[in-house]
């Protein structure tokens, strides 16, 4: 069974600061995803990471993947209030029919 | 046009009732999923269908029965609703591009009283 651990689960940070969210997973995974969820809303895809060493950036968010360490990071640069949301990482493989196995999510609050 | 749609958005019902949630995607995808998000925001896969056939059935009570009349639709029927079924249910679909990215519907918030 694929297990996914995220930390921290809660993060309060000031605007302008940098921080990293970590995502560890238990067994070999074909793909790793990062999603954003705003309160009462659906999940929005942020990044899809397919191979070891993959790095993707969009605005103030950058995601990376180390398949050997089974670790992905989501780095936040110079946080702004609009980034406040819950961030989920998820992994998948062919054994699960490519269903997503999610971490518990990181609730991020960016304060002035 | 909405890519993945669900109806209803909110559903409030009493214990013991039977209810259905409908999902439709217009992306031309072959594979659709149902996920459950509990009150602690934890997301868990329930079912997966590929081209109208069930390919994953996680440890879900058999009171839950998915039905796929065609590959664009995946409905979820729930019998004898229990308090613990209260959650947000998300439908998702994915195509066959390399990323296997999934697209989520808006969710259905089910409240059982």
Report the principal-axis shape of chain A: globular
Biggest sheet features of chain B: 7 strands, mixed
Beta fraction of the residues of chain B?
over 45%
Could you give the count of β-strands of chain B?
11
Q: What proportion of the residues of chain A form beta strands (DSSP E)? A: over 45%
Spans where pLDDT lies below 50 across 5 or more residues of chain B: none
Uncertain ranges of chain A:
none
Structure report:
- Chain A contains no helices and 11 strands.
- The N and C termini of chain A lie far apart (41 Å).
- In chain A, strands 2, 4, 5, 9, 10 and 11 form a 6-stranded mixed beta sheet that branches.
- The model of chain A has no long low-confidence stretch (mean pLDDT 94).
- The N and C termini of chain B lie far apart (34 Å).
- The mean pLDDT of chain B is 93.
- Chain B is mainly β and 113 residues long.
- In chain B, the strands form 2 sheets. In chain B, strands 2, 4, 5, 6, 9, 10 and 11 form a 7-stranded mixed beta sheet that branches. A 4-stranded antiparallel beta sheet of chain B has the order 1-3-8-7, with no helix packed on it.
- The relative contact order of chain B is 0.33.
- At the A-B interface, strand 4, strand 5, strand 9 and strand 10 of A face strand 4, strand 5, strand 9 and strand 10 of B.
Provide a quick synopsis of the model:
With 112 residues, chain A is mostly beta strands.
Task: Fill in the keyword field for this structure.
heterodimer; A: 112 residues; mainly beta; 6-stranded mixed β-sheet; 5-stranded antiparallel β-sheet; 11 strands; 55% strand; globular; B: 113 residues; 7-stranded mixed β-sheet; 4-stranded antiparallel β-sheet
SSE topology sketch:
The complex is a heterodimer of chains A (112) and B (113).
Chain A: E1 4-7, E2 10-14, E3 19-25, E4 31-37, E5 43-49, E6 55-58, E7 61-66, E8 71-76, E9 85-92, E10 101-102, E11 106-111
Parallel strand pairs in A: 2-11
Antiparallel strand pairs in A: 1-3, 3-8, 4-5, 4-9, 6-7, 7-8, 9-10, 9-11
Chain B: E1 4-7, E2 10-13, E3 19-25, E4 31-37, E5 43-50, E6 53-57, E7 64-70, E8 73-78, E9 87-94, E10 102-104, E11 108-112
Parallel strand pairs in B: 2-11
Antiparallel strand pairs in B: 1-3, 3-8, 4-5, 4-9, 5-6, 7-8, 9-10, 9-11
């Amino acid at each position: 069974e694929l297990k996914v651990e995220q930390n921290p689960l809660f993060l309060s940070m000031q605007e302008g600061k940098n921080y990293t969210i970590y995502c560890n997973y238990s067994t070999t995974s074909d793909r790793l995803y990062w999603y954003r969820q705003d309160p009462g809303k659906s999940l929005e895809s942020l990044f899809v990471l397919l191979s070891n060493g993959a790095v993707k950036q969009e605005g103030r968010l950058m995601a990376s993947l180390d398949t050997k360490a089974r670790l992905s990071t989501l780095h936040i640069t110079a946080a702004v209030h609009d980034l406040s949301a819950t961030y989920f990482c998820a992994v998948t493989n062919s054994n699960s029919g490519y269903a997503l196995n999610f971490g518990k999510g990181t609730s991020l609050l960016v304060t002035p | 046009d909405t890519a993945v749609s669900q109806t209803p958005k909110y559903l409030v019902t009493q214990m013991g009732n039977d209810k259905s949630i409908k999902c439709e995607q217009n992306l031309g995808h072959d594979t659709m999923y149902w996920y459950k998000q509990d009150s602690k925001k934890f997301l868990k896969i329930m079912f997966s269908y590929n081209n109208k056939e069930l390919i994953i059935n996680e440890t879900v009570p058999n009171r839950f029965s998915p039905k796929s009349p065609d590959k664009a639709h995946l409905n979820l029927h729930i019998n004898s609703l229990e308090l613990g079924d209260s959650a947000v249910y998300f439908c998702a679909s994915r195509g066959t591009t390399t990323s296997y990215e999934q697209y989520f519907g808006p969710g259905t918030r089910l409240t059982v009283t």
